[in-house]
């Protein structure tokens, strides 16, 4: 397995990342990007004989303008692959090659709730930087050697610059006010030139200040005396001041504490040892668990990608938590929120509440409904938008970025699923966080949700079966889809979809649980219970007893076999309503049916790829890692299918997908077409794997 | 001659431009760019029969994702070239094609001095927008027709968006908070989609709100009722809030008046008629003059390019005027400042003072000097940096972006020339603007300049000849260059260069004039006069009487014949010291010598290209339009060479260069290699042509 994959090294809530690890011009310091920064990154050391420089392979040979203008250039070659090692953990990423050790520290920690925490505590977690340590072992060499850490940029960005506006001990390089690499180490010097070769070959160090439009390479140059081992430290910083969103004006929360990138650098270096220690401590979140190596790698990779997508904004003095949707950069996509739920409830329950509140107040809407081919004459109810905006543009109230009109497939509305998603997230938050005040405040809304869910089943109570049968007027004459938007009908169509049905059952059950605590909501509790039971009955009814599975689209012409039929079972488990999952309990027959279903479909050639990876639908090559992780948990922990096919063999196959040549650039990606990431790249959703820590 | 060239349509001081006119994906709304925005720009109208759309040719056919998803796409074709006309003037640019007229209004006006003017007056001039009018003549058609004005962007920018956060009558599209096209016209609607085809073919207009990462096209869609002629109006806006520079923090001056792009749009539309009238009035600056068409085109083209490069910043509550150096984006390059002098002294003398003051306080330095091959042991003196920074990065005090160390050619220091440039600009400002207070305040600095100039001639007064002989210690052991940096030695080397010598003579003469007004500076006046005389004598001495010209590098091995020997004569003329230019006056012999020089070199095959264009140096193919304009003025107005070769034939050749296929993209460019723009593209310096208005 290669070690040369891009990994995120991201501050929390700054929507930025020092992504690197993939060979070539494939990484660098990215601020609000949908992909890596595509910079050459230079990390290396002068050879012992001084004839050349050796570096990690994160750059590409390029035509150098005016080569040799400032001295006789010495070559920069790459360390041999076999001489390079990497230790990639949750909070640390350590590279060793030749006489250097290069480690990035990025703590994984809870964010205090901005509505109650002190500025000091928030500043500590939200500082938009990561720490880097470069140890150079020159103890066996009797020459001074030069080590370096730098990168380039393009002519289209703000200027590369040295931080000559800071006093010693600070030396730094960066792009405008957006990114910086700053050190406070002795014998470290900032330099800017037309290429790394120009920097390393300069006869006059005065020429390390060249700042022309061609001078797009910046580096810290470290001088290491003979017979010494020296440690240099760097703050890798990101910054965007003032207004960052359009539609509604917000700024980064960290902008309250840092008014310029120089102060970010200073704070980071002043707290370097503390940040480093916290990053090392983060590793134990994964290391202390009995996961296999393929799991550890994927979990660590996924959490890092998640952080790169996060953005804590200040919206009229209130926090606004945003998870950007990877390469698509949609903001708080609700069908991702529900998958981030397990991670966020563990790390930062307040962000779940924050997101739910904004969906409730700004991104909910009321619709009417139509039966297939009919008119929008049936009562609908409340639902929630797919997202809150895209690429730093906050969407208008009641409308998402994604959802379009008059469609039956991709880009159509997800009205039903988002209603289910909000309901589950909200009940889960209330139950898990024991937030009684919030729960009570939201009861009228929960009632609306129940009513809306029921209306989508059927306008006539007699005909209700727990299965969605009507589509939203938001689709005009179209039909709704699910989060599996770019998959085929088996998972793409919402109506009668077994995946949606089971999630709906979980929503009804959770509502029942909430309502049952309140006298005045007894009737609602009963209705919810009735709908849950109807759903369970229907699932059993639709079991194809001959084939041993439930067709993906129940009662329609779609015979696909899908794993995510079982997905929704995770929620009662997560909400400590585990009695509902008892094979001998109230819904025992449904649970047994789903077990049979899983047993039937989980076979090579059906829902297992030849390499052992999971194939979510028998009729599609497109499989989604985040959902696989989630369904693995359900299969193993809830349904009890603990074996090599649900475990180690699958894990190794999935890790293998992420490490395929085509995928290395994108760090963690979701949609895998026969193992190749073609959509949902550079993506936050893999934190579903956080569930594994509870197995 | 083609009409399809890119032209700037730029607000004043906002470093932005709606550049378009070149066929293809070659224009659009650019903020702080070194080149056009490379967007598809869509300006067009539905055909009478409704079968397709016809548009101006500012877009390229592209692969359209999900074509037909929202309706049956109709083709967008281009109007035929012969059916398109353009009227390109200083303040207006009018296109006609088929039934549409599309006009951009961008006033050319003086900026009130921010240190004394009212906010209201400043806001009026500095609003970062231009106005657009689209007239659709549907009077002969009995169908409603759709007209449109929009553009696309790329996935790498902030999101394209509709301005659904504004109330009617406003409708708008734009990129994040950076650019906008906003209308307040009736029957105009904003739309966003994956392509212009998607917008124009949408069955449900609800789909004009699609905002996914693929939805990178925005447009205003105008519905024109049958049998009507309708006028739509648009504010094309640019905006960058908060801190924009690094090194030192500054913001745009307009940010005082406009806190978001929406308010820019509102203000622009509220004042539309006024802005339009002022733009039309601007045209008279050129139209009222007896210039030939080739001159009018070049002057108008140049002034527009200049404005696109300008930036009025707020630096600790003081104005900071910046002219960015075209594609290089260096800030206030001093050797451009002196060429902008004629234009700026006419339009905004305060910007000259502003620039001079900042050079004096922050970007001056003291050096030592060396004779060729010698050491830096000779006293030097004050000089000024090449520039104040680059690409929004303000350089550290006393250092430029451009100047490097230990060099003898390109990227070396311009110490001597910048000293001359500052001296001339400062004396010109004082004299022309009759700013006696400022003049008095700067007298000690003028004295330092004189001393420094003399030291660069020779440490020993006896050996002074008015010719620069020593190079700055800033070059270490190298030598200085001139503004003609990428030309060959004939104009590139500073020492002994006849171009520098004559500019030096002008500087000495101007200093003499200033000093002579002050009793306590009598001695300085005498020294300045002595140096001017020595210079004039030397020029005559170095006349190669056999060949009839002065060698470019006097007394060294460079026999090039150069036109800019005469360049420096413009300054005594400009400063109303015209007696110095009298052939029978004090410097008559030098003037006669330079006349002879010009007569000799100004010949086809020497300093005239085969097409009649001016060739600044006999030994280089690289000729600079800004400098040609300036030297044309000197040859015609001062030396009296008024003929077709200095006038119409040359003007037509130069206009022809700008209209060559290879150059159309770059609007106005400076460095022409046999008529092809290879360096200094998209450049502000052509405002030297403003001198023509005084012939």
CATH architecture field of the largest domain in chain A: Alpha/alpha barrel
Question: What value does the Rg of chain A take, in angstroms?
Answer: 27 Å
Query: According to CATH, what is the class of the largest domain in chain A?
Result: Mainly Alpha
CATH topology tier name of the largest domain in chain A = Glycosyltransferase
Q: Write down how many β-strands of chain A occur, each being a DSSP E stretch of 2 or more residues.
A: 29
What shape does the CA trace of chain A take? elongated
Find the structural class of chain A using helix and strand composition: alpha+beta
Helix content of chain A: 25-40%
Which strand-content bin applies to the residues of chain A?
A: 15-25%
Mean pLDDT of chain A: 97
Oligomer: homodimer
Number of helices of chain A: 16
Largest sheet of chain A: 8 strands, antiparallel
| Number of spatially distinct domains of chain A | 2
Determine the N-to-C terminus distance of chain A: 26 Å
Taking pLDDT < 50 over at least 5 consecutive residues as the criterion, the unreliable ranges of chain A are: none
Notes on the structure:
The structure is a homodimer of 695-residue chains. In chain A, 30% of the residues lie in helices and 20% in strands. In chain A, helix 5 (293-308) packs across helix 16 and helix 8 packs parallel to helix 11. The longest helix of chain A is centred in the middle third of the chain and has 22 residues, at 436-457. By secondary structure, the first copy, chain A, is an alpha+beta fold. Chain A has 16 helices and 29 strands. In chain A, the strands form 8 sheets. The first copy, chain A, has an 8-stranded antiparallel sheet with strand order 6-7-8-9-16-13-12-11. A 6-stranded mixed sheet of chain A has the order 5-4-3-10-15-14. Chain A starts with 15 loop residues before the first strand and ends in a 16-residue tail after the last strand. The radius of gyration of chain A is 27 Å and the shape is elongated. Chain A folds into 2 domains: 16-282, Beta-galactosidase, Chain A, domain 5 (Distorted Sandwich), CATH 2.70.98; 289-694, Glycosyltransferase (Alpha/alpha barrel). At the A-B interface, strand 22 of A face strand 22 of B.
């Amino acid at each position: 397995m290669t070690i040369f994959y891009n990994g995120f090294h991201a501050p929390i809530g700054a929507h930025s990342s020092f992504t690197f690890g993939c060979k070539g011009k494939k990484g660098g310091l990215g601020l609000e990007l949908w992909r890596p920064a595509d910079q050459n990154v230079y990390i290396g050391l002068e050879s012992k004989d001084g004839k050349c420089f050796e570096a990690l392979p994160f750059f590409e040979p390029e035509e150098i303008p005016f080569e040799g203008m400032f001295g006789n250039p010495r070559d920069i070659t790459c360390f041999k692959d076999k001489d390079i090692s990497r230790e990639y953990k949750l909070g640390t990423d350590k590279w060793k090659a030749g006489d250097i050790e290069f480690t990035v520290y990025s703590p994984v920690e809870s964010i205090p709730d901005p509505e109650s925490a002190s500025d000091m505590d928030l500043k500590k977690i939200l500082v938009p930087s990561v720490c880097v340590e470069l140890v150079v072992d020159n103890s066996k060499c009797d020459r001074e050697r030069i080590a370096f850490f730098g990168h380039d940029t393009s002519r289209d960005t703000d200027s590369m610059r040295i931080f000559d506006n800071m006093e010693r001990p600070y030396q730094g390089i960066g792009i405008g006010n957006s990114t910086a690499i700053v050190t406070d180490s002795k014998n470290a010097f900032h330099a800017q030139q037309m290429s790394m070769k120009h920097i390393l070959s300069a006869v006059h160090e005065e020429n390390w200040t060249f700042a022309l439009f061609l001078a797009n390479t910046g580096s810290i140059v470290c001088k290491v005396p003979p017979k010494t081992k020296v440690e240099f430290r760097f703050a890798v910083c990101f910054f965007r001041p003032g207004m960052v969103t359009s539609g509604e004006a917000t700024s980064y929360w960290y902008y309250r504490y840092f008014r310029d990138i120089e102060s970010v650098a200073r704070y980071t270096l002043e707290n370097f040892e503390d940040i480093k220690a916290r990053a090392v401590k983060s590793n134990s979140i994964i290391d202390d668990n009995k996961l296999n190596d393929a799991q550890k790698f994927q979990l660590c990779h996924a959490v890092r990608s998640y952080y790169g997508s996060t953005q804590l904004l200040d919206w009229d003095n209130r926090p606004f938590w945003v998870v950007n949707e990877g390469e698509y950069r949609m903001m708080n996509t609700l069908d991702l929120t529900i998958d981030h739920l397990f991670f966020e409830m563990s790390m930062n329950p307040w962000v779940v509440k924050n997101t739910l509140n904004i969906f409730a107040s700004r991104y909910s809407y009321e619709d009417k409904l139509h039966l297939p081919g009919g008119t929008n004459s049936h009562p609908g109810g409340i639902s929630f938008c797919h997202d809150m905006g895209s690429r730093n543009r906050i969407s208008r109230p009641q409308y998402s970025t994604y959802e379009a009109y008059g469609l039956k497939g991709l880009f159509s509305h997800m009205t039903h699923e988002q209603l289910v998603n909000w309901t589950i997230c909200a009940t889960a938050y209330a139950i898990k966080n024991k937030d009684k005040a919030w729960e009570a405040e939201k009861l009228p809304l929960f009632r609306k949700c129940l009513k809306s869910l029921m209306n989508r089943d059927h306008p006539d109570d007699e005909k209700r079966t727990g299965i969605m049968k009507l589509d939203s007027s938001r689709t005009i004459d179209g039909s709704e889809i699910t989060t599996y938007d770019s998959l085929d009908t088996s998972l793409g169509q919402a109506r009668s979809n077994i995946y949606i049905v089971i999630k709906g059952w979980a929503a009804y059950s959770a509502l029942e649980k909430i309502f049952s605590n309140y006298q005045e909501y007894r009737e609602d509790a009963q209705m919810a219970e009735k709908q849950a039971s109807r759903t369970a009955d229907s699932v059993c009814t639709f079991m194809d007893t001959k084939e041993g599975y439930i067709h993906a689209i129940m009662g329609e012409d779609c015979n696909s076999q899908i794993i995510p039929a079982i997905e929704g079972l995770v929620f009662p488990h997560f909400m400590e309503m585990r009695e509902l999952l008892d094979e001998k309990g109230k819904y025992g027959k449904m649970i047994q049916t789903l077990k049979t279903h899983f047993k039937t479909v989980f076979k090579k050639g059906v829902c297992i790829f030849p390499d052992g990876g999971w194939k979510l639908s028998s009729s599609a090559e497109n499989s989604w890692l985040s959902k696989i992780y989630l369904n693995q948990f359900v299969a193993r922990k809830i349904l009890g299918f603990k074996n090599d096919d649900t475990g180690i063999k699958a894990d190794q196959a999935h890790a293998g997908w992420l490490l395929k040549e085509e995928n290395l650039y994108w760090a963690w990606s979701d949609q895998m077409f026969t193992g190749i990431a073609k959509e949902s790249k550079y993506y936050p959703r893999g934190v579903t794997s956080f569930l594994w820590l509870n197995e």
